[in-house]
């Protein structure tokens, strides 16, 4: 079982790639459900990275601030697009067009993380530290919001304070939607 932050994030990236590979095969009636799964996966992943990965990159890797800022800006753009998509009708032609624009940006972001961020962390940190970050990442994933909040803070301390509140609200929203 993957336990280092490197392994966990890489596994998430593979899951996202697999999910996006299904996009053109999804029947129109199922596109809304497919999008909800994607949105939740991406949002939880991004929030967990913002809580664990990027603070470690900033504090433990030379030049990490600049790299973290660039990757967080990419995530912010994707989160804004997810929020826009969430307001759209999944049956509209523009919905699929917007999703098709989001896909390359998300996949390119994952590629940059793997080639730059994860490789630098791997080189700078020992296995124990990577395992500690992996445990923190898994915990953050399990308690992260499930909907995009593009105006919420992306860095500590703001994201550590508002993230749990958003997560509770999102889970309540999801439960109400399922019940109705």
Structure characteristics:
180 residues, mainly alpha, 6 helices, elongated, Four Helix Bundle (Hemerythrin (Met), subunit A)
In short:
The protein is mainly α. It is built from six helices and no strands. The longest helix is centred in the middle third of the chain and has 32 residues, at 93-124.
Describe this structure in words.
Helix content is 78%, strand content 0%. With 180 residues, the protein is an all-alpha fold. It has one domain: Four Helix Bundle (Hemerythrin (Met), subunit A).
Please write out the topology.
Blueprint: H1 5-21, H2 31-60, H3 64-86, H4 93-124, H5 127-143, H6 158-179
Helix pairs in contact: 1-2, 1-4, 1-5, 2-3, 2-4, 2-5, 3-4
Stretches where pLDDT falls below 50 for ≥5 residues?
Answer: 157-162
Query: Kindly state the mean pLDDT as a whole number?
Result: 84
Percent of residues in beta strands: under 5%
Characterize the overall form: elongated
Helix vs. strand class: mainly alpha
Q: Which range best describes the helical content: under 10%, 10-25%, 25-40%, 40-55%, 55-70% or over 70%?
A: over 70%
What is the CATH architecture descriptor? Up-down Bundle
Largest sheet descriptor? none
Number of helices: 6
Radius of gyration: 16 Å
Order of helices and strands: HHHHHH
CATH class: Mainly Alpha
Q: Note the gap between the termini.
A: 37 Å
CATH topology: Four Helix Bundle (Hemerythrin (Met), subunit A)
What is the number of domains? 1
Number of E strands = 0
């Amino acid at each position: 079982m993957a336990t280092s932050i490197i392994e966990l994030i890489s596994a998430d990236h593979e899951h996202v790639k697999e999910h996006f590979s299904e996009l053109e095969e999804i029947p129109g009636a199922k596109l809304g459900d497919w999008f909800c799964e994607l949105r939740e996966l991406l949002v939880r992943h991004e929030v967990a990275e913002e809580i664990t990965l990027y603070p470690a990159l900033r504090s433990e890797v030379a030049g990490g601030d600049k790299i973290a800022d660039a990757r967080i800006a990419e995530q912010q753009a994707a989160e804004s697009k997810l929020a826009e998509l969430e307001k759209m009708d999944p049956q509209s032609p523009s919905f699929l067009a917007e999703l098709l624009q989001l896909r390359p940006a998300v996949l390119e972001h994952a590629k940059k993380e793997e080639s730059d961020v994860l490789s630098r962390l791997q080189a700078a940190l020992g296995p124990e530290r990577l395992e500690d970050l992996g445990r923190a990442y898994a915990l953050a994933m399990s308690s992260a919001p499930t909907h995009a909040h593009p105006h919420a803070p992306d860095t500590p301390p703001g994201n550590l304070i508002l993230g749990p509140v958003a997560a509770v609200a999102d889970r309540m929203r999801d439960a109400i939607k399922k019940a109705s």
